[in-house]
């Protein structure tokens, strides 16, 4: 069998490249599943038009579809799709804001949002920074010669996160459980991977975070503001 030497980047780029399909993918960036009608509303197209867009995204393996009786729900195929969208956002120009509602949504996304299933935005970056300052995470050389780093969970960090209620025994026993994304809005790292997912889920369970009315947006509650400052030392001026 011939070795696979190249990938069809053009097909994936073409699938993402349509503005309506890009809006579909971004709407699903929080990790949830949505029906075609809701995705049509997010993309600003008719229900009849969205079917063609969804077919192209499925063909490019960017989406999967789940059946629930007569209903079909769509979600991102893998976390890698969400990470790719986050990286594309780093080099993309911002969309023009044409309404008060769009401005409110844009500002909320910048403050705190979900990147698939983990915390991103200004708040996500602040949490990541504080985890390092509190010796929960430590940066080590990646060993690739490019000057990059990897993050590892310290012994102190294991104690702190276990006390916080994160079940570390359920995380993969490998370094890659501590992953990061370069946050597109902040240009700095936020915590991703299994640990980022578990930490975000715990904050939601404690009602430190609540889902907003906009897709992907989360809001920091009063309990979360107090808890992040007391537990992880996140400075108050980074919690606004």
UniProtKB/TrEMBL annotation:
Highest taxon of source: Bacteria
Lineage, top ranks: Bacteria, Bacillati, Actinomycetota, Actinomycetes, Kitasatosporales
GO molecular function, one term: DNA binding
PROSITE patterns linked: HTH_ARSR_2
Entry-linked InterPro entries: ArsR-like_HTH, HTH_ArsR_DNA-bd_dom, HTH_Metal-responsive_Reg, WH-like_DNA-bd_sf, WH_DNA-bd_sf
Annotated ranges, domain HTH arsR-type: 1-96
Database matches in Pfam families: HTH_20
Protein name: Metalloregulator ArsR/SmtB family transcription factor
An annotated GO BP: response to lead ion
CDD domains the UniProt entry points to: HTH_ARSR
